[in-house]
Amino acid sequence: MTDIDHLSRMNACFLGPRSENEAWLRSEMQAILDSWFGWRRDLFPDDPEAIPYDERVSVPFLQQREKLARQISRLTDILRDEVPKHTPRYIGHMVSEISMPALLGHFSALLHNPNNTSKEVSKVTSVLEAEAITALAAMVGYDPAGASGHFTSGGTVANFEAIWRARFRLDHWLSLALYLAEEHGLPLDVFRAAHMGWKRYFELIAMHGVDEGKTRHYSLVASNPFEAASLLSAHTRSPYKGPVVLVPGNKHFSWLKGVSIFGFGERAFWTIPLDGEGRTDVAVLADLLDRAEKEGRPVLMVVSVAGTTEAGEVDPVDRVQDLLDERKATRGQDIWHHVDAAYGGFFASLLGGVGENLLAPGVRAALAALGRAQSITLDPHKLGYVPYSCGAFLARDREAYSVSSFHAPYLDRADLGASVWAYTLEGSRSAAGATAVWLTSEALGFDPAGFGQIIASTIENCRLFAKTLTTSLPFVRTLQPLDTNIFCFNLAEPGMSLAEANRRTEAVFRKFVASPHFSVSRTSLSRESYEQLIAAHMAGIGGAVDADAMVLLRCVFMNPFWASADVHAQLMPEFVAELAGHYGEVSGASFGPAADGGELPRRVDIDEAVATGPAHF
Ligand SMILES: *Cc1c(COP(=O)(O)O)cnc(C)c1O
C-alpha cells in the first residue's frame, strides 16, 4: 500500500479542520435523521397524531417555536467561543478532532436514548456494547471469548471498577481465612490468606465443608469492617492496618480519589518510584511487595500505567507481570495487576503490523503484555477519537469481572448478562459511547490496517514536530524518552538551572495561553516521583537541580491533520516563530527561527530521519 492510499483512507475518517467533508457528513447525518423520523412515523402507523396540523400553526405554538429558535441561535453563537479542539493548532490536552464513525455512532444512539443499565431499556445497544467490548478486548490481547467489561463515564470510574473488583476478591479470601481461624481454629497469616487464589479458596471451602454464607459475617465489606479488622488483629496479635495499593509515581489523581472513596485511607497509597525513564522501577516494586508482606498488609492491586498523562510513557507491563507470575509460582501469592491504559491502550492497535516498529522494543513488549493483566482501563474519549464521555473497564475473565454479590463468582455466572446494573458502579449509562466505539470498530477495526494507521501517523507527526522544533531552536529540551505521541520539553540554555528553566518555561506557557494561535498544555514533574528522570534531563543541560519540580510544555499529537504536507508546511514554521518570539520576550534575547539563514527541514527529509522503522505502511 502506498502512503497516499493510507492518507486518503485516514482523511475519510474525519470531517477535516476546515469542514472539508461537510457535504458528506451532512448527507450521513441526514440519512440517520431520515431513518429515525421514518421509524417513529411508521412504527405504529394506525395510531393518531398527537400534534395536529392546526395546532402546529397556532400562535402560541409559533411563539414557542420562535423562542426556541432564538435561543438555539444564541447557543450556537456562544459555542463559537468554545475551545477549538478539532484544529491542528490544538495540541494541548488529550482531546482532538473526533472521528466521523464515532460522531455518527454517538449521534445515532443519542436519538434513540437507550439506557444500557438494563436490556429492558436498551434492547439493541446493550448488544452493541458487548460487541464493542469484545473488539476492545481483542485489541488489548484478551481472549475475547473470556473477557468481560463495560463502558464507563471515563477512565476515573474504570479505575474505580478495578478497585471494587480487587477488593471483592481480596475480601472473599480474607474473610474465609478469618472464618476458618475463628470457627475451626486454623492459624491465620493475613498476607498469605489475602492472596490465596480462587483454587485454594475452593479447596478450603470443600475441605472444611464451609457454608459460604457464614463467612459473610467475617467480611470487611459485607459485615462491619471495624469488627472484622479487630478480629484479624486479635488472631495475628498485631494491629491489622488494611491493604495497600501500589501505584507508579506518576500517580494519576484518580488513584488517590479511589483509595479515598473506598475508605482505605491515603496511607494505603504506596507510590512505586520511577526509574530514569519515568517508568515503574520493577526492582523497587519487588522490594515494596516484600515490605507489604513483612508488615502483613495485603496488596489490593499493583497498577501499571500504559501512557502516562504527563508524557505518555509506558510502564514495563510485561516485567511487572513477570514479577507477579514469579511470586505466584514460588510463593503461591496471587496479586491483582491492573493496567491503567486510559490513554495508551489504543497503541495496542499497532501491534502485529509494521507500524509497531515506531515503538521502542520495551514499549512494544509492554503493550503486547496488556492481555496478561487482570484488568485494564481504556479511555475511548481520548485516543479512541470518541466524543465524551466514554471510558471502558475490561477484565481478562469472568472471575476478574465478578463483584457485588457475596456469592462465589462461579455461582454467579448465570446472572452476569442479565443484571448488568449489579456489576457497574454507575447506574443509568448512556449507550452513545458504546455505539460510537462499535461503529469505529465496524468501519475501521482496531487493528494495524485500520485504526492502527491513524495512531501510527500521530506518532510520526509528533516525532517530526519534535525533531523540527529542536533542530530549529536550540533552547528546546526534549524530555526523553518520547515513547508515543506526546512531546514534552522545557526551555533552557546550557548551564541553566532548573529553577530558571522553570521560570522561562512557565512564562512562555503564559504567552501561549494569551495568544490565540496555538494551544499547548503545561505539566510539571515532581522531583519526589521523577528524581532520576529530572537528573538525567538536567545533566543534558548542565544545570543544577534547584527546584522541587520540573515544568514542561506539553504537546499532545492526537490531531490527525498534521499528516497533511500542506498543514505541516504552514503551521510548523508558524509554531517555530511563535515559540521563538515568546522565548525572546521572556529571555530578553532574540531568537529567530533558522537564525543561520537556512530553511526549516522539509517534511520529507525529516520523515526519513525520524522514522525508527519502515516509513511506509
Ligand atoms: C485520563 C486518565 C485517567 C482518567 O480518565 P478520565 O476519563 O479523565 O476520568 C486515568 N488515568 C490515566 C493514565 C489517564 O490518562
Automatic annotation (TrEMBL):
Coiled-coil positions: none
InterPro entries: GrpII_AminoAcid_Decarb (IPR050477), PyrdxlP-dep_de-COase (IPR002129), PyrdxlP-dep_Trfase (IPR015424), PyrdxlP-dep_Trfase_major (IPR015421), PyrdxlP-dep_Trfase_small (IPR015422), Pyridoxal-P_BS (IPR021115)
Pfam families attached to this UniProt entry: Pyridoxal_deC (PF00282)
Superkingdom of origin organism: Bacteria
Keyword line: Lyase, Pyridoxal phosphate
Post-translational modification N6-(pyridoxal phosphate)lysine, affected residues: K382
Gene Ontology biological process terms in this record: carboxylic acid metabolic process
Required cofactor names: pyridoxal 5'-phosphate
Entry annotated with the keyword Cytoplasm: no
GO molecular function, one term: carboxy-lyase activity
Family from the record: Belongs to the group II decarboxylase family. Sphingosine-1-phosphate lyase subfamily.
Name of this protein: Pyridoxal-dependent decarboxylase
